[in-house]
Each structure stands twice: as C-alpha cells, then as structure tokens.
Amino acid sequence: MMKKPASERALNPFAASDGRRRVSFDDADLEEETLLHAPKALSPSTSLYKPSNPTSRRQLPFIALGLVIGAVLGLAVGYVQFTRMDPGLSFAMKDGVQLTRQNPGDKLARVSTDPFVLRVMTFNLRYGTAMDGLNSWPHRRAHVAELINRYHPVLLGTQEGMDEQLRQLHEMLVPQYERFGDPREDGGEHTQIFYDAHVVERVQGGTFWLSETPQVPKSRGWDASHVRVATWGRFRLRTTQQEFFYVNTHLDNTGKLAQLNGAKVIWTEMKKLVGNTLTPLFLTGDFNTLRPSDVYEYLTTNPEGPFFHDAWRVAEHPIGSISNSYHEWIGPAYDKTKHGDWLDAAMDQPDIPGANHIDFILSRPQLPVTTTEVITESRNGRYPSDHYPIVAEFLFPSATELPPPST
C-alpha cells in the first residue's frame, strides 16, 4: 500500500524535515523560510546571529522603542508591497532575492538563488524472493533501509525490487519518501523510483518497455533474456518550481542487441518529453555492461545519443577504492567482472577504482558533481545487496539558470 502524499500528512510548520527551525511571521508579512534542498544539517557551531556590542542600561529603552517603531513601519511597507503583487504569480524578485509560492494562494516565500546540492542514488536491491541463505532479503532489509535513510537521496533509482520487498522497504524509510513504477510483468521486478516529496513534486511519470513497442506492457525486445523496463518521472523543485526529468532502468543481462537498443529506446522516449531543451535529465541504473561498450559509447559520446556525463568520471571527489560495482556478496574480494556467464573475462584493470562499474549515474547537460561514492559498507561480513549502491551529489543550477517551468 502506497503512503499518503506528503501534502496530506500533518507537518510542524516550525520544523524542517531535518530538524532545523523555520522562521515565519504574521500572515500580513512575508514568510521567510530556510528552504532545504538536500538533507545536510548545519554544524552545531554555526551561529545565525552575531552578538551585539555591550550597551548601557540607559540606552536600552530608547533602542527598544526604535526597534518597535522600525518593526511596525517594516510590517506596513511589507504588507503594501506584497499584497500588491498579483496573487497568481509563482515568482517575483525583490532586491535581488527570488520569491516563490508553492501553491496558488500561498504567500510568497524567500528562497536562495544559489546553486544547491541534489543527491541521487542508484541501488540494485537484489530481488527479494531469491533464496540467498543469510543474504536473503529478511536478513538485510533493515540494513538497506538504514543506509538509504542515512544517505537520504532526493532521488533513488532501484532495480530488481519485488512488490512485497518494495512495500516493506517503503514502510521502513522516513515518511517523506514516495515511490512509483510498474513491474516489468505480472509479479515481476520493478525499476521503481523513490523521491523525497518534501523537496520535489512529481508532475508526471510512468513506465515504458525496452522493446520495439515501448508502450505495450510486458513486451520483450530483440535478444533479451527478460522483459525490461524503464521508469521515468518529471519533477518540480518545490522551492523554485523549476523542472527536471529522471529515468531509472535495468538493461538486459545477456542480450547485447537488447542492451544497445534498450538504451536507444530510453533516449527516443525521453526526447519526446525533453526535446532539445536544456532541462536537466538524470539516468541511473544497472546497465549490465562496462564503460568500454557500445551502450556506454552511445549514451555518452555518440553523435546520435544524448551525450550524458558520467558522475563518477566528472566528480571532484570520487569516493571508493574498489574497481567493480557488482561483487556477488563477497565485497572487495570479488576480483572478476563475471556476472553469471555474460562477462567471462577477468578484469584488465582490477586495481583502478571504478574501472569495472556496471551501475551508473548519468546526467545532461553537464552539471558539476561535488562527490560520487561507491558505498561498500558491510555488517558482520554481510552486504546490503550483491551490488554496491552508488550516490552522487550534483550542484544543481540556481533558479535563475534553469529553464522556466512548463506551461
């Protein structure tokens, strides 16, 4: 059962999702909030107010009177200025600061126009019905949920999730997460997207099939060993109303033609929505192929492709010393790119971090990537999945740099 939308859940108006205080004023005045774009807490030592100079007691009554008069005048001027604004406006600029409202009738709220960090994660969960002994889903689901809650991505692309597995995971995550995405076939795996509904609003979304007939459910393409799908969403930032797209997928594990054509289907379908605009587009998934491949070349450098940028390769601070992203439950001891029988060659560069990833986080146009991390943690020698989750932090454009919202 899906959770209620975030808008239907009661919220403390003076507490942000990460516990930080929000400051608001009377209804007649501008509501000023510290609106958050990523779950990063302020340092405990951070001071929001500078201490004033010592003042004698005789001066205090006059200072207090001056402050009261100034506050009254400020309220009056603010009321006149902001009530004169068109109530249908989504944006306004005041002294170089952007003001926005999330919903019609809301007061305009002050937001930062500086770039902010958007955290994206890809995570192949390993399907929950697999008979993996001590690595089975019941033994690792708590670790999976705790890891996601701790890293708290705004966008999370999952692969291989089953209905009950995804339901259990959703119940264990913090309340602001919502999810969507259809199974590839009845009772089959999903490529569901989880998102923080406090930060972004889902405007559109759906699932298409990686086949010659993408809109036909359960259709299998080319030489694929399984039915394959991609889940996509169009999202709107709640603070600035700017939009972006996100796609999550899982390419076939054996069919080379299905892998390449599946990547082409993804770009063909997304071009219908994104067009030739500069609207940001993110793509995550288990691609079941290495970087030196036709699939990777099509997605990143082919003139007919989308020219995605690989977060691992462009990150200022890539974190993770292992070469592979799939590890077959044995972690760093895994020394081959063998995944079943589809990759039968030993790694050519086993000591180069990231050289043998098959899980990627891609974006277009190129956005600054502050960090990318391959999360290799384990508990008592057990890993949360047979793939390492990967997380990237994008320095998302400021509101003034993004394309305007669609009409």
UniProtKB/TrEMBL annotation:
TM spans, by residue?
A: 60-80
**A Pfam family annotated for this UniProt entry:** Exo_endo_phos
- Which terms does the record give in the GO molecular function aspect? 3'-5'-RNA exonuclease activity
Q: Which SUPFAM superfamilies match?
A: DNase I-like
Show the InterPro entries listed in the entry.
CCR4/nocturin_mRNA_transcr, Endo/exonu/phosph_ase_sf, Endo/exonuclease/phosphatase
- Residues of the Endonuclease/exonuclease/phosphatase domain: 121-387
Please provide the record's keywords in A-Z order: Membrane, Transmembrane, Transmembrane helix
Q: What is this protein called?
A: Endonuclease/exonuclease/phosphatase domain-containing protein
- Supply the source organism for this entry: Pythium oligandrum
